[in-house]
Amino acid sequence: MINVALLPEGSTSDEAARYLFAGTDVSWSYYKPIADVFLSTTGGRTDYSIIPIENTIEGSVSLHMDWLVHEVDLPIQAEWVYPSIQNLIGRSSECLNENGVLEYDRIVKVLSHPVAMAQCTKFLRGNLAHAEWEHVSSTVEAVRLVKENPGSGWAAIGTEAGATVHGLDVLQRGVTDHDNNFTRFLLVGNRPFTERKSDIQKTSILIELPEDYPGGLHQVLSAFAWRRINLSKIESRPTKKMLGNYYFYLDILMSLDSVLLPAAIQEIEAIGCQVRILGSYPSFVYQP
């Protein structure tokens, strides 16, 4: 049996995990802070950690990326994209009138994870600007707090699965600002992922340029360009060594088993760059 660490039951991570491992014998280990998710795998208690790393609306999840880069050494074994469908959750008995119509002015506080709340800004401003908005550690935690405070006029932004877990009602479905709201997840751990196959292969690397090297980034990109290697993402992040010092995170649409990619990496290292390979892995596209 495979043991997988992830954020709490009923979260988008939980829904996404069940999609990736559909038909596989899996034991789920739920944790609240993302640090505990990572540490359960580095400590050998789980085979994999599931990490939400990027969102259509909010971009990269900086805290999770920093943990992947600075705190642990867990290779990426797979990636997949899953829709992030957020809903307004609460008690119908508190928020609906006698005709079954949702009355927003009955809601005095909305709770959710900051990323989920940011995905629903237009909805919140348009309908719940009068209410207090409070950030909590996860969407599931928000739903739990609403459950534990009946009669308070509280509501949560969260998943339908989260509402089911805590026995609350979905007051309004699909309150995200954009219909194409997806989250990219990474499966990290030391065990190769062989449960599913994909025709899409990717490699993620970190590159740190030599200090005060004029044209260094141009030379790095040229090593990929003349070989016609496609990059799907490039992002700069602080190295945390000194102010103004950055590394570059690259997602490459090619396997490390190819001939061209190792040659490009060797060329980059030859100009004095430090290269760290985060993983070479299958990429899965969501199919409803």
TrEMBL record:
- What is one process in the GO biological process aspect for this record? L-phenylalanine biosynthetic process
Which EC numbers characterise this protein's activity in its record?
A: 4.2.1.51
Q: In which pathway does it act?
A: Amino-acid biosynthesis; L-phenylalanine biosynthesis; phenylpyruvate from prephenate: step 1/1
Going by the UniProt record, its keywords in alphabetical order are: Amino-acid biosynthesis, Aromatic amino acid biosynthesis, Lyase, Phenylalanine biosynthesis
| Chain coiled-coil ranges | none
One MF term in the entry's GO annotations: prephenate dehydratase activity
Query: Would you say which domain of life the source belongs to?
Result: Bacteria
Specify one Pfam family: PDT
What positions does the domain Prephenate dehydratase occupy? 2-190
Enzyme group, top EC level? lyase
User: Is Amino-acid biosynthesis set as a keyword in this record?
Assistant: yes
Q: Which InterPro entries match?
A: ACT-like_dom_sf (IPR045865), ACT_dom (IPR002912), Chor_mutase/pphenate_deHydtase (IPR008242), Preph_deHydtase (IPR001086), Preph_deHydtase_CS (IPR018528)
Enumerate the residues marked as the site Essential for prephenate dehydratase activity. Answer: T183
The record's annotation in Gene3D superfamilies points to:
3.30.70.260, Periplasmic binding protein-like II
- Keyword Lyase assigned to the entry: answer is yes
- Catalytic activity from the UniProt record: prephenate + H(+) = 3-phenylpyruvate + CO2 + H2O
Could you tell me which PROSITE patterns the record lists for this protein?
A: ACT, PREPHENATE_DEHYDR_2, PREPHENATE_DEHYDR_3
**GO-annotated cellular components:** cytoplasm
Q: Where is the ACT domain?
A: 205-282
Return the protein name. Prephenate dehydratase
Lineage, broadest ranks: Bacteria, Bacillati, Bacillota, Bacilli, Bacillales
